[in-house]
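Propose amino acids for all 270 sites.
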């Protein structure tokens, strides 16, 4: 389990670090995929180790993240891949740290200077914010709340293939919460915009951090109230009412979409 307090002690060569090369996470071939790497190994094997920053404590040990630069990754020692590819291939504990590490690295890189006056910012508040001294502006890591909703009608559930997804899988509808909007209003608006249906009986289900790059997925269930499916082709390729036992490919159970679908199916069987 990750302790979110950010260590203040500097990393040493034995410190455990999650290293990113662009958007990809680097793993040692000898280790398991998604596992951290000792800082000394990274410093020996990569041309540049930069943006080193603390992430938290994992099982009591301080852990860190960094970016690495190299013209060519040594494929005899390392592999690299995007975060999506790690889903299901690394432990939940490691995936949680990797998601936090990636978000903190991006946040620190994007907020080195104050957005208001351009002065360099400094880490403050035990690493929870970046602060501009002249204008006393504090910037916190940006999370983007996103609703994801399983819409049902009797024993049927609504599944949709996103535009450009090649209909690889069919999932719940999702969208960002707009400024000034409640999550429930976002659910109603997204469902209306994407498939033209009115829903009610909106119930909170649970949440999941989704570090691609900084969403917080808030899961809901809702019941169909009125309307026929009328998709917005800019957002959705196809939307279907599906019966349990006759589903198209759906997202893996690791994802909140998979969990929403499974819990609907369990309730039908129960
Ligand atoms: Zn400023």
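Proposal:
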């Amino acid at each position: 389990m990750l302790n979110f307090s950010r260590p203040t002690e500097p990393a040493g060569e034995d410190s455990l670090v999650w290293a990113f090369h662009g958007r990809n996470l680097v793993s040692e071939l000898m280790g398991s995929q998604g596992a951290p790497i000792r800082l000394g190994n990274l410093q020996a094997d990569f041309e540049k180790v930069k943006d080193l920053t603390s992430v938290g404590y994992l099982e009591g040990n301080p852990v860190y993240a960094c970016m690495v630069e190299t013209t060519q990754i040594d494929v005899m020692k390392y592999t690299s891949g995007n975060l999506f590819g790690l889903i299901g291939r690394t432990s939940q504990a490691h995936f949680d740290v990797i998601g936090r590490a990636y978000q903190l690295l991006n946040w620190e890189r994007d907020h080195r200077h104050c957005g208001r006056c351009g002065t360099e910012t400094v880490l403050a508040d035990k690493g929870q914010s970046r602060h501009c001294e002249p204008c006393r502006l504090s910037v916190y890591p940006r999370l983007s709340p996103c609703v994801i909703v399983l819409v049902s009608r009797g024993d049927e559930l609504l599944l949709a293939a996103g535009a450009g997804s090649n209909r690889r899988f069919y999932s719940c509808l999702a969208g960002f919460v707009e400024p000034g909007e409640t999550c429930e209003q976002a659910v109603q608006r997204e469902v209306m915009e994407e498939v033209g249906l009115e829903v009610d009986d909106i119930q909170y289900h649970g949440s999941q951090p989704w570090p691609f790059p900084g969403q917080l997925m808030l899961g809901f269930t809702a019941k169909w109230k009125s309307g026929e499916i009328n998709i917005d082709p800019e957002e959705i390729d196809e939307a279907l009412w599906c019966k349990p036992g006759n589903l198209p490919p759906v997202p893996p159970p690791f994802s909140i979409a998979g969990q929403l679908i499974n819990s609907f199916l369990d309730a039908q069987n129960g």
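Residues 169 and 250 are 5 Å apart (CA to CA). The pocket of zinc ion is lined by residues 114, 116-117, 119, 132, 134-135, 137 (CB under 6 Å).
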